[in-house]
Amino acid sequence: MVEIKGIKKSFGGTEVLKGVDIKVDQGDVVAILGPSGSGKTTLLRCVNFLEKAQAGELLFDGRAYDLQKITKKEIAAIRRKTAFVFQNYNLFLNKTALQNVTEGLVVARKMPKAQAEDIGRRALEKVGLSDRRDYYPSQLSGGQQQRVAIARALAVDPEIIYFDEPTSALDPELTGEVLSVMRQLAEEGMTMLVVTHEMGFARNVSSKVVFMEDGRVVEEAPSREFFESPRSERTKEFLRLIQNA
Amino acid sequence: MNQRLWEILVDSFPKILVRGFTMTLPLTIIAFSLAMVLAVFMALAQFAHVPVLKQLCRFHIWIFRGTPLLLQLYLVFYGLPNLGIIIDPFPAAVLVFSLNEGAYCAEIVRAALEAVPAGQLEAGYCVGMSYLQTMRRIVLPQAMRTAFPSLANSLIAMMKDTSLASTITVTEILMASQRIIARVYEPMALYMEAGLIYLMFSTVLTKLQKMGERRLSAYTSKEG
Ligand SMILES: Nc1ncnc2c1ncn2[C@@H]1O[C@H](COP(=O)(O)OP(=O)(O)O)[C@@H](O)[C@H]1O
Ligand SMILES: [Mg+2]
Predict the structure, then answer these.
(1) Residue B208 belongs to a domain with what CATH number?
(2) Under 8 Å CB-to-CB from B196, ≥6 apart: which residues?
(3) Measured between alpha carbons, how far is B33 from B38 in angstroms, rounded to an integer?
(4) Hey, is B17 helix, strand or coil?
(5) How far apart are CA A23 and CA A19, in angstroms?
(6) What is the sign of the dihedral through the CA atoms of A110, A108, A166 and A53?
(7) How does residue B171 score in pLDDT terms, banded at 50, 70 and 90?
């Protein structure tokens, strides 16, 4: 469904991604783990063209795209089939919760307003925020904002949703409400690529774990295998560290 | 206060006020509207780094912020005729005030655009919107909200600066009072009266500014 091959990215002189391959099949929930600074955010940003990769290939919907030669048109077409959930939500600050969800439908996809609002209401219901649809982001808690962001992602009926540490900006007591929405999506078969520090989510919800360090994939394995019988020494050390934390 | 002075004041008040409504106010409103169009256009061209246009905008801002407004009025009204370009007083004033005010407001709007978090534009891309769509629907409205108080202050300042248009024979409030002074020779009383009329106008504009800010505050306030 989505496959990234040999992606490379440098900022200035420093190489942040040194050739990363990741494959996400339909219905997969792939968790990307790794210490901070290992290039996880950069990877997601390259995959959704918020950064331009210096090398690499993207296989999307059975078509291969050279990340250097991809055209604006192709980028726009792929973006209409994907969604992105940011670490700091990035809700449209001048729009209500419902407008945040419908904006991409009405403006980018030219959907009639009534139909978009219908979809928007259902998406907000799904994340448990029907009663907050006319609130502005500044009037919502962090957890609520992130759930609106997930509703906004759902509304466009994406083939895959990218999450960049969706809970790490939240107070600990608010992470649960976001994680449970994500778990529900996973159960419904949504394809997701999730950068996270939530080990519970990686272990229990994701189907596959990719462990990154220093711009490379160190280990990639089905979740259970990753946690129960890690192969690389570095992974074992990482797991020991987080278990002691 | 003696009887004569009082009669002069009562007699002149409506005459000056009417100039406020027929000259000062139209000049302010027309010039500021044009200035806003110019300012948004120039701010966007700079924000988006449009080649050539961006340099032209910087040049325009450099010239109009770096020279006196009074000189700009003189150049257009008294200078341009040397080149065979003759513009009536009122349009000349509109031209100078809108170009000058546009330069200042462009900087206000540009700063406000730059203050919008980069994530807003990225979120727009991620829901499938184009650069222009996101600018129009998300970034610019937020920037205008941020810029509103400063723009309103500029409007009020410009309203008072229109008194400079008297030097190019626009019969606005100041010019109207000067004409009466020339006749009755009571500068103290009549300048006070003109000041009072400016004060009335700026008070109303300040009230409008407060109302506007309250209306716009919906998405920045914490209350439901
Ligand atoms: N825009 C940027 N400019 C320069 N360096 C960057 C930029 N974005 C990220 N980096 C660097 O790239 C490295 C990887 O960052 P990031 O992808 O955010 O890691 P992670 O998400 O795994 O914590 C870091 O060393 C970071 O400083
Ligand atoms: Mg990160």
Answers:
(1) 1.10.3720.10
(2) none
(3) 9
(4) helix
(5) 13
(6) positive
(7) very high
Asked if the model's pLDDT at residue A241 lies above 90, the reply is no
Number of Cβ within 10 Å of residue A23's Cβ equals: 15
Q: Has residue A126 got a pLDDT over 70?
A: yes
Cα–Cα distance measured from residue B123 to residue B188, given in angstroms and rounded to the nearest whole number: 60
- Between CA A98 and CA A118 the distance in angstroms is 10
The residue to mutate among A17, A41, A162, having the most atoms of ligand 1 within 8 angstroms of its beta carbon, is A41
Q: Is the pLDDT of residue A153 over 90?
A: yes
Is B130 near chain A, with CB under 8 Å? yes
Predicted TM-score of the model (pTM): 0.91
Option in A76, A82, A138 nearest B222 (CB): A138
Question: What's the pLDDT score for residue A101?
Answer: 97
State how many domains chain B has: 1
**Domain of B9, in residue numbers:** 3-223
Mean pLDDT of A164-174: 93
Ligand 1 mean position, distance from CA A10 (Å): 9
CA-based Rg of chain A, rounded to a whole angstrom?
Answer: 18
Average confidence (pLDDT) over B115-135: 96
Residue B224 clears pLDDT 50, i.e. is over it: no
3-state secondary structure chain A: CEEEEEEEEEECCEEEEEEEEEEECCCCEEEEECCCCCCHHHHHHHHCCCCCCCEEEEEECCEEEECCCCCHHHHHHHHCCEEEECCCCCCCCCCCHHHHHHHHHHHHCCCCHHHHHHHHHHHHHHCCCHHHCCCCHHHCCHHHHHHHHHHHHHHCCCCEEEEECCCCCCCHHHHHHHHHHHHHHHHCCCCEEEECCCHHHHHHCCCEEEEEECCEEEEEEEHHHHHHCCCCHHHHHHHHHHHHC
Sign for the CA dihedral angle at B202, B208, B210, B216 comes to negative
Kindly tell me the burial class for residue B172, based on how many C-beta atoms sit within 10 Å of its own C-beta (0-12, 13-18, 19 or more): buried
Is the CB of B217 inside 8 Å of chain A's CB atoms? no
Contacts of residue B117, defined as CB under 8 A and 6 or more positions apart, other chains included, come to: A90
Q: Does A92 touch chain B (CB under 8 A)?
A: yes
* Strands lying side by side in the sheet with A55-60: A14-24, A2-11, A55-60, A63-66
Q: Whose CA is nearest to atom 10 of ligand 1?
A: A11
Chain A nearest CA to B61, separation (Å):
29
pLDDT at B197: 97
Q: Do B123 and A107 touch (CB under 8 A)?
A: no
